[in-house]
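#struct-help
A.M.: can someone run this one for me? Single chain, 309 residues.
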Amino acid sequence: MKIAFVYPGQGVQAVGMAKDFYDKFDYAKDMVKRAADAAGFDMEHILFEENEDIHVTEYTQPALVTACSIMSKALEDKGIHPDITAGLSLGEYCALVTAGAMTFDEAVRLTRIRGNLMSSYVPAGQGTMAAIIGLPKETIEETVEPIEGATVANYNCPGQIVITGEKEAVCKGMEALSEKGAKRAIELKVSGPFHSPMLKGAGDKLRVELDKVEISDLKIPYIANATAEVVEDTTNIRDLLQTQVSSSVMWEQTLYKMKDLGVDVFVEIGPGKTIAGFVKKTVPEIPVINVSTVEDIDAAVEKLAELAK
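D.P.: on it. C-alpha cells below:
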C-alpha cells in the first residue's frame, strides 16, 4: 500500500495544536524547546497559551511546522512511514523534513524568516488575495491574465482557486470573475499578496538563507508546489523554495500526480481537514486519514491496517 503524508498550509493554525502530544511524549517537549531556540521566540506560549500572535505570519509558519512535525514523528514511532510526501505552501517545509531533505530545526528557522519576509515585503494594503469559488481554472486564467498585477496564487482543487496581487487588480479580477459566473469571490484576510510576482524580491532574500542550509539526500521523494513534479534529488530544492514564494501553488495538480503514481491513501497531518476537502473534490476515490491528536494516531494505525487487507 502506497502512503502519502500531506501537510496543510497557513490558515489552519490554532492555539493548543500538538498540546496533547507535548503533555504525553518527552520527544514533543524536546522538539518544542528546539523550535523555540531555532525560531527565537517562546514557542510554548505561541502554541499553547491564548494569544493573537499565532495568527501573525512570522509566528504562524514556524509554529505550524513544529506542530505538524511532532505529529509526523508520532506516526513514524508507530511504524507508519510514507512512500511520498507533499505540503501546501508552508506545508512543503514539513514535507521536506519528512523526506529528509532538511532538519526540523532548519525548517523552523527558515519558516520564521520566510514568514517575516512574506508578510512585510509588500507594504500593508498594497496587495491582497481572493478565493474564487465555482469556476473552471481555464475561465479564471483567461479572465485574470489580461489584468495587470493579478495572477493565480493557488490551484487548490476543481472549483476553488485563489488569485493574488495588487489590491486594485485583485478587486478588478473579483468583479470580472463574478460576472463570469463565480459562485463566490471572497477577499481573504491575509498580510500580503502571497504567491504573487510582487514577492519575487522576498524569495530572493530567502535564497540567501537557503544557501546557508545543508540539503541532505532524500529518504523518500516529495512533490514540489511550484512544478507539481516529483523531486528525487536535491539539486534544485533551493531553487524550488525560492520560486515557491512568488509562484502559483499547484496543489490540484499535485494530487493528480500522486494518483498517477499509485498513492492508495493520504494521511493529512495537522489541524483541520483542509487537505481532505481538496482531495474529495480532486481525487475522491482515494481515502484520507486525518491526524491532529494523540487519539488520531491509534485510529490511523487501525485504519491503515484495514486498508492494507
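A.M.: thanks! The longest strand covers residues 150-157.
D.P.: also worth noting: The longest helix spans residues 57-77.
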